[in-house]
Design brief:
- With about 700 residues, the chain is mostly helical.
- The protein folds into 2 domains: about 20-320, Orthogonal Bundle (ABC transporter involved in vitamin B12 uptake, BtuC); about 375-685, ABC transporter involved in vitamin B12 uptake, BtuC, CATH 1.10.3470.10.
- The chain is globular.
- Helix 15 runs antiparallel to helix 21 and helix 20 (about 475-495) packs antiparallel against helix 21.
- The protein has helices spanning about 1-40, 50-55, 60-95, 110-120, 130-150, 155-180, 190-195, 205-220, 225-230, 235-240, 245-265, 270-285, 290-315, 320-325, 330-345, 365-385, 395-400, 410-440, 455-470, 475-495, 505-530, 535-540, 550-570, 570-575, 580-585, 590-610, 620-630, 635-660, 665-685.
- It contains 29 helices and no strands.
- The protein starts with a helix and ends with a helix.
């Protein structure tokens, strides 16, 4: 009797939950259908809802039918397919990694696919769309495997996102280099990388639909195993689930889904991150959504709705001409950046920000020897930078130029080359000093102006001025860069200050702000000059091309100010970098000290961006290497870090100008190629 009496009570909630889940799924289907209909009614031609209906029912004239069938229907279908594929891929990756921030973006899957297609395009090979998706799949799968291996088993949120973001920067740098080296072959690839769902006919959709279907089918076949993995690896092994094989299968299927989406529309940013997050609250209330077999299709619906909603919003807010030029992925990237910042504020920091390295105090002789060697290397790099390039010169040519006795050809070369060398060296020194100050103040060994969004904000401010006021001078650009960096730093440090600059919160907020800045830069370039993607790539690649000595004056002034402040307050830097209690016991007010030092770091980073564009990883690598060479006392770290930063950027600029001369690559691209492996090495070294 007891059993029969309690059975209805036990099954009623399940029945009610199942009914609610069906209702929610039906509501999502209706919402996506409404968005698809709205998307069909938007476009540059005067084809409204009535004309669309006539075209769908076969009663429209030939012109209207052609617009609907050849353009708008394929666009909506591409949005549905790409959004669903990315949503499903993100949900699967989050489930298998048990990390709410895992997605095709944060695992560098999209960046790997983009690189694969970039190499294919730059090589001049023409492959069918289906074969191109195979290239994208290979690149995305390789990138995901590297990130998961570097992050380690049971990776925390920050480690996974850092590994993915760093690898994405490195892979994107290589792809951007290909775009700059082969502009004719890769024309349009930059805008495609922002994620556009516009299509010419159904060919692409029809070819990619089976690829996405194969990925979804593979995930559904291992859905029960994924449900078991949610209980933990040991529990899953206990019931006979092959954990490693299941993880590999899920990553392969997710990469296949992402490759289908990227091949069709380009990387539509952060859909794979946001779509599962929208479904997650439903899973807490409705039990059927917990099961992977149900969760995956619902996440796909959410992803399709996100892409279509972004496209509808874009076309509703902009003129018809601009809405065609602006990729839909710019909108989803902005939404994803806001979501990432929101998630960062909710992340619980399990790692203390104060993680000092092993104390070592080299002798004074060792410190002086290190400085002497670095000065010699810096002089050698500067001389090589002046003498080498597409035209090789001699020291005598430089001496004649300095005395005003050089010929016209030599004078022209040195008039353009010397300012570039000076700008690179000063920018590297400024970024290194900025990174040293930021790492000391936040006690975060992974803090760096680029990762924290400060460089991105500076680049946004500079690009905004350059695109709106083409004749702006160097001081105006520096001021605009400082304004952008100031706003970005206020946002990042203000949000991260709660809880004492915790490592997780600070880095995730910085990555979110940096992502938003890059998306806005792309938007500015498209709105002001949609055919000049090189302008955006120049800023984002950290090029010193076209710089004059006047352009280097602001960063030189900021560097003098920064060195003076850092030297005078070197003892405060030592104390602040230890913990919160020691400075207070010695009477130091930590809040004003932090604010002042961070302000100096922002000025240094902003002027460096104004002088040489966006250059990443220098502010991370130089302070780390300096501490490894001379210990943790800032009286020694500061000069060594400055010298290392100047050498790094000077070398990157030299290699970019000489390795493939007469073609050139920006110092930022070269520093990303150099800095990414070192950053990933730091993650591996600190895994314990």
């Amino acid at each position: 009797m007891a059993a029969t009496a309690t059975a209805p009570a036990a099954t009623a909630p399940a029945d009610g939950s199942r009914t609610g889940a069906v209702a929610v799924a039906a509501l999502l289907v209706c919402l996506v259908a409404v968005l698809a209909v709205l998307d069909l009614t938007q476009g540059t031609s005067s084809v409204g809802a009535s004309e669309v209906w006539k075209a769908l029912t076969g009663r429209a004239d030939a012109a209207d039918a052609s617009v609907v069938v050849a353009s708008r229907l394929p666009r909506a279908a591409a949005g549905l397919l790409a959004g669903a594929a990315l949503g499903i891929a993100g949900s699967a990756l989050q489930t298998v990694s048990r990390n709410v921030l895992a997605s095709p973006d944060t695992l560098a899957v999209n960046a790997g696919s983009y690189l694969g297609l970039g190499v294919l395009t730059a090589s001049g090979l023409t492959l069918p769309l289906f074969a191109s998706s195979g290239v994208a799949f290979t690149g995305g799968l390789a990138a995901a495997a590297v990130v998961l291996a570097l992050a380690g088993p049971g990776a925390g949120t920050v480690r996974l996102v850092l590994a993915g973001s760093a690898l994405s920067l490195g892979l994107s740098a290589v792809t951007d280099a290909l775009l700059l080296l082969f502009p004719e072959r890769t024309h349009g690839l930059y805008l495609w990388n922002q994620g556009s769902i516009s299509q010419n006919g159904f060919d692409g959709v029809l070819q990619m639909a089976p690829v996405a279907a194969a990925g979804l089918l593979g995930l559904l076949l291992v859905a029960r195993r994924l449900d078991a993995l949610a209980l933990g690896d040991e529990a899953a092994r206990g019931i006979g689930v092959p954990v490693r094989a299941t993880r590999i299968t899920v990553v392969v299927c997710a990469a296949l889904l992402s490759a289908a989406a990227v091949t069709l529309t380009g990387p539509v940013g952060f859909v794979g991150l946001c779509a599962p997050a929208l479904v997650r609250p439903l899973a807490r209330r409705l039990r059927p959504f917990v099961r992977v077999r149900v969760n995956l299709p619902v996440a796909g619906l959410a992803g399709a709705g996100l892409v279509l909603a972004a496209d509808v919003l874009l076309r509703a807010c902009m003129s018809e001409e601009l809405s065609v030029a602006v990729p839909t992925g710019v909108v989803t990237s902005l939404l994803g950046a806001v979501f990432l910042v929101g998630m960062a504020l909710r992340v619980r920091d399990t790692t203390s920000a104060a993680t000092p390295e092993r104390l070592r105090i080299p002798s004074r002789a060792a410190f002086l020897a290190t400085v002497v060697v670095l000065v010699a290397v810096l002089v050698a790099v500067a001389i090589a930078g002046v003498l080498l390039g597409d035209t090789k010169l001699l020291l005598g040519d430089v001496a004649n130029w300095a005395q005003g006795q050089a010929g016209q050809a030599v004078g022209f070369v040195l008039d353009t080359r010397v300012p570039r060398v000076v700008a690179a060296l000063l920018a590297g020194a400024a970024l290194a000093l900025s990174g040293t100050l930021v790492q000391a103040v936040t006690r975060n060994p992974l803090a760096e102006p680029g990762i924290l969004g400060v460089s991105g904000g500076a680049a946004l401010g500079a690009v905004l001025l350059v695109t709106t006021v083409p004749l702006a001078g160097s001081w105006g650009i520096a001021a605009a860069a400082f304004a952008g960096a100031g706003l970005a730093s206020l946002l990042v440090f203000g949000l991260a200050a709660r809880g004492g600059f915790g490592q997780s919160r600070l880095v995730l907020v910085g990555i979110g702000v940096s992502t938003a800045a890059i998306a806005l830069i792309s938007l500015l370039i498209v709105l002001t000059d949609p055919f000049n993607a090189t302008k955006a790539l120049t800023w984002l690649s950290g090029s010193t091309y076209g710089r004059t000595l006047t352009d280097a004056v602001p960063v030189a002034g900021a560097l003098v100010l920064g060195i003076a402040v850092a030297v005078v307050r070197r003892t405060e830097l030592d104390l602040v970098s230890l913990d919160d209690d020691t400075p207070r016991l010695l009477g130091l007010r930590t809040a004003p000290a932090r604010f002042g030092l961070l302000g100096v770091g922002v000025v240094l980073s902003a002027t460096a961006v104004a002088a040489a564009g966006t250059i990443g990883f220098v502010g991370l690598v130089a302070p780390h290497a300096a501490r490894a060479l001379v210990g943790r006392r800032h009286a020694r770290v500061i000069p060594v870090a400055i010298l290392l930063g100047a050498v790094l950027v000077g070398t990157a600029d030299l290699l970019g100008r000489t390795v493939i001369a007469p073609a050139q690559l920006g110092a930022g691209l070269m520093s990303a190629v150099i800095g990414t492996p070192y950053f990933l090495y730091l993650l591996v070294r600190t895994r314990r």
